[in-house]
C-alpha cells in the first residue's frame, strides 16, 4: 500500500472517533480524485441493511463526504430508507438495485465505495469496484471463501487502489495503545502464555420483515437467495455467511493474531447447532476453539468461545503473561491491566 504522505493533504476519509466506534474505519489514503478543485469525497454505498446503516450514519458525521449513489436489492425498504435519509441531509444521489448498473452509470462520478452486503457477495462487489478504479471499504468478512479473498487481494494489487476491510478494533485507540505501549513498549505482561476471549449473546429471534415489502422471488433468486427468510437471516446459512464464529469470533481472533504478532499454527475446535432449528440455522450456534501460537518467545495457547444462547460476561479478550494480565474490550468499563503478585 502506498504510504506517500503527500496524499494526506486535503480529504481524510476518517478523523472522527464517532465513525471509528461505528466501525467506519477508512484509510486516510482515500483522498485523491480527478476533481482536484473539490474537497468533497464522492462515495456510494452497496448494501443498505443494518451494517450499511451504521456506515451511513457514521459518514453523515464526517465533513465533505458526499453520497452520490446507494444500492440495495430490497428496493421497497432498505434502498428507499437510505435514499430518503440521504436526501434529507442534502445529498444529491441516485438509487439502484443492481451494483453493475450503478457502476456503469456513475462512472467518473465516484471516488470510493462502501460495501456492506452479505459475505458471499463481497468478492464480486469488491472486485468490480476496484476494477472500476474505485477505493473500497469492505465490511468483514472479506469473503466467505479463501478463493474469494485471494481474488479480492489480487484485484486490489492490480488496481493500485486502497482496500480496507472492516476490522474496526485495529483503529480503536484503546487497542492501539494497548498494543503499542503496554505490550510492545512496556512489555508489561512479560511472556504471554495464555489468551482467553469470548463473545456471548443471548437468544435472539430470527429477523422478520413486513409482508407488504417482501422481495419478489425472481429478484431473490437473481441475487442468490432461496427465500425472504434466507435473505433476512443469511448469516446462518452455509454458502452465504459463516455463523457466529465468523460474525463475532473473527473480530477477536484477529486481535489474537495482531497482539501475538503471529498467525496460529494449529487449531482444535468443537461446535454444533444445539439450540436452534438446523433447517434455518445451518451454522453452529456455539463454538469452542483452542489455538496454538508459536510467538518466538515460546508457545501461547489461546482459547475462544462464542455462544448465542446466553450473554453472560458479554465480549472481551484477556491476554495473560507471567508478569501481568490485560483485559480489553470495545465495551467501555471492561478494560484493565493487572500485575502478577510475584
Strand content: 15-25%
CATH superfamily of the largest domain: Dihydrodipicolinate Reductase, domain 2
- Quaternary structure: single chain
Describe the sheet with the most strands: 7 strands, mixed
3D structure, described in words:
- The protein has helices spanning 17-22, 50-59, 75-88, 99-105, 122-131, 146-159, 173-185, 217-222, 228-232, 244-247, 249-259; strands at residues 41-46, 65-71, 94-96, 112-115, 135-138, 163-165, 192-200, 266-272, 286-294, 299-307, 315-321, 324-328, 336-339.
- The chain starts with 16 loop residues before the first helix and ends with a strand.
- The chain is of the alpha/beta class and 342 residues long.
- It has two domains: 5-166, Rossmann fold, CATH 3.40.50; 172-339, Dihydrodipicolinate Reductase, domain 2, CATH 3.30.360.
- The longest helix has 14 residues, at 75-88.
- The strands form two sheets. Strands 8-9-10-7-11-12-13 form a seven-stranded mixed beta sheet, covered by helices on one side.
- It has eleven helices and 13 strands.
Please outline the helices and strands.
Blueprint: H1 17-22, E1 41-46, H2 50-59, E2 65-71, H3 75-88, E3 94-96, H4 99-105, E4 112-115, H5 122-131, E5 135-138, H6 146-159, E6 163-165, H7 173-185, E7 192-200, H8 217-222, H9 228-232, H10 244-247, H11 249-259, E8 266-272, E9 286-294, E10 299-307, E11 315-321, E12 324-328, E13 336-339
Parallel strand pairs: 1-2, 1-4, 2-3, 4-5, 5-6, 7-10
Antiparallel strand pairs: 7-11, 8-9, 9-10, 11-12, 12-13
Amino acid at each position: 500500500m502506498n504510504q506517500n504522505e503527500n496524499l494526506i493533504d486535503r480529504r481524510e476519509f476518517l478523523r472522527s472517533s464517532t465513525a471509528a466506534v461505528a466501525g467506519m474505519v477508512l484509510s486516510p489514503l482515500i483522498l485523491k480524485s480527478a476533481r482536484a478543485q473539490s474537497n468533497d469525497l464522492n462515495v456510494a454505498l452497496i448494501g443498505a441493511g443494518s451494517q450499511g446503516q451504521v456506515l451511513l450514519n457514521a459518514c453523515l458525521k464526517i465533513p465533505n463526504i458526499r453520497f452520490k449513489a446507494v444500492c440495495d436489492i430490497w428496493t421497497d425498504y432498505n434502498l428507499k430508507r437510505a435514499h430518503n435519509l440521504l436526501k434529507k441531509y442534502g445529498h444529491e444521489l441516485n438509487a439502484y438495485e443492481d451494483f453493475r448498473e450503478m457502476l456503469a452509470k456513475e462512472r467518473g462520478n465516484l471516488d470510493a465505495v462502501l460495501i456492506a452486503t452479505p459475505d458471499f457477495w463481497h468478492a464480486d462487489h469488491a472486485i468490480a469496484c476496484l476494477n472500476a478504479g474505485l477505493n473500497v471499504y469492505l465490511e468483514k468478512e472479506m469473503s466467505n471463501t479463501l478463493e474469494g479473498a485471494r481474488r479480492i487481494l489480487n484485484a486490489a494489487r492490480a488496481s493500485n487502489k486502497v482496500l480496507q476491510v472492516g476490522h474496526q478494533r485495529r483503529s480503536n485507540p484503546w487497542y492501539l495503545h494497548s498494543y503499542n505501549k503496554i505490550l510492545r513498549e512496556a512489555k508489561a505482561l512479560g511472556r504471554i502464555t495464555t489468551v482467553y476471549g469470548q463473545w456471548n449473546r443471548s437468544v435472539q429471534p430470527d429477523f422478520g420483515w413486513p409482508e407488504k415489502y417482501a422481495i419478489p422471488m425472481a429478484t431473490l433468486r437473481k441475487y442468490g437467495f432461496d427465500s425472504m427468510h434466507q435473505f433476512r437471516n443469511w448469516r446462518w446459512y452455509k454458502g452465504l455467511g459463516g455463523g457466529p464464529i465468523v460474525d463475532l469470533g473473527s473480530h477477536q481472533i484477529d486481535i489474537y493474531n495482531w497482539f501475538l504478532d503471529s498467525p496460529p499454527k494449529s487449531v482444535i475446535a468443537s461446535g454444533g447447532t444445539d439450540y436452534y432449528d438446523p433447517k434455518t440455522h445451518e451454522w453452529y450456534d456455539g463454538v469452542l476453539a483452542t489455538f496454538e501460537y508459536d510467538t518466538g518467545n515460546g508457545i501461547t495457547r489461546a482459547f475462544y468461545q462464542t455462544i448465542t444462547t446466553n450473554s453472560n460476561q458479554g465480549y472481551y479478550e484477556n491476554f495473560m503473561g507471567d508478569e501481568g494480565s490485560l483485559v480489553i474490550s470495545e465495551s467501555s468499563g471492561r478494560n484493565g491491566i493487572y500485575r502478577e503478585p510475584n
